[in-house]
């Protein structure tokens, strides 16, 4: 019998190492030669729909095998059955569409996942389930059936299931989607706490969310890593490329700009080459992201 | 007011825990009413023990409140991950109903048809259980549970085992009710286990549902073909002789089932969803 206790992450090992990983579904290449390194903290995956974020996260959650390349999680190899089991014992995963048993109560559902996560002692398990539910503020509705809960609450139930047992590695696919601002803040504090103890990989569409939470952001486009660095570095990409002017109506895009829109203050904001008479503005992470997603304008 | 006699700290602690008998408790209580020192001692004790004691009590209370359903599935963890999973529970119930209804209805019309239906269906119940146990797609919470340590061959084996154990007594009971000749009562069990074991063994490489359907069709063709060839003569005798009680059939089945189960138990940590897209 294998001694799983001995299968701990070797000290000094990176929490996540992805080397030249490729995954295709039929003729579509979902993830193409992706490299990634992470050693603790919160890592944000940004990118448009269909960029390969979910596929990459599923591979990091040990539920999908890469076609090529290698992945190492917590210093262990998910291709080996015994090491994969050791990884899963320290892993929390939130799928993009976590299906839940409609007839279960929130408590019973999280308890069910706790059993699958090998929390065998009944009393300790229930206490851990209550802790996870309380973390996301679901205590008062935990005995209601899933089918009577709102979409945001269901998302929080699935999140509670993911953080059971304080995993060293959290892989969360769009955890903030569908949450109201208050619960988004709650999630942010849970994730920054988890990031201070281990590694959290999240995908998100909210650049502001990533800027507020992540030490490292990765922009994925068409299955390839287009940018990897600190959120401030992503914003800095747009330095000298963001312009404000009031001459254009915002509906037409001046030549050389990748994006133009009317801001809440009524100004027109451009990203790219300066339109005539425009003034330079301070870049945000949004500007950097928009520049990166429009490859032709990026200067590496 | 004070007295010479005082309750010992041990007595006070036992009193606070309600561990004194009624006689001693009422005597300590009577003393507490008149003795300031012992009241102070008791409240000091209660304060120092407050954290742990009230925590314990609180845990007990919440645990009581949190267990409104004291059924099988909430009590045992194995039941929680097998029959506690609604798709598997539904599949098990459907399989058992089919196992009872179809042979008995067929048996009402014709005894031979009842025998064919039972011998044709009963060995397939564990196979279907195994196939259902494999499908994360049939499980609404399959995605959520996919990355958990238990989501391996262990879970599939456990789920297949539960369906098989549920099917065994039901199949035998139906055979008794029909009634089949005694040699047929148990003859279907080993072929059923062998078919189930084949699905379990090959299910991590091939699509387990297709495999189960193919095996089910093969078994049905075998049994009904035999039924057709023996229009005259005693069908149950033929079935008994060739399919279910033939030593070669039984030995082969037992061999397959045992061999596969040994392999599977050795590979119990293998993931069943690792290659799935």
Tell me the total number of β-strands of chain B: 0
- Described by its quaternary structure, the protein is heterodimer
How much β-strand is present in the residues of chain B?
under 5%
Structural class of chain B: mainly alpha
Helix content of chain A: 25-40%
Distance between the termini of chain B: 82 Å
- Total helices of chain A: the number is 9
| Structural Rg of chain A | 21 Å
Q: What is the typical, i.e. mean, pLDDT of chain A? A: 86
Helix residue percentage of chain B:
over 70%
For CATH, the homologous superfamily of the largest domain in chain A is named as P-loop containing nucleotide triphosphate hydrolases
Question: Treating each run of at least 4 consecutive H or I residues as one helix, how many helices of chain B?
Answer: 15
Biggest interface reads: A-B, 45 and 38 residues
In the CATH hierarchy, the architecture of the largest domain in chain A is: 3-Layer(aba) Sandwich
Strand order of the largest sheet of chain A: 5-6-7-3-8-9
Give a summary of the structure in a few sentences.
The complex is a heterodimer of chains A (300) and B (277). By secondary structure, chain A is α/β, with parallel strands linked by helices.
Tags for this model:
heterodimer, A: 300 residues, alpha/beta, Rossmann fold, six-stranded mixed beta sheet, four-stranded antiparallel beta sheet, globular, disordered N terminus, B: 277 residues, mainly alpha, 2 domains, 15 helices, 74% helix
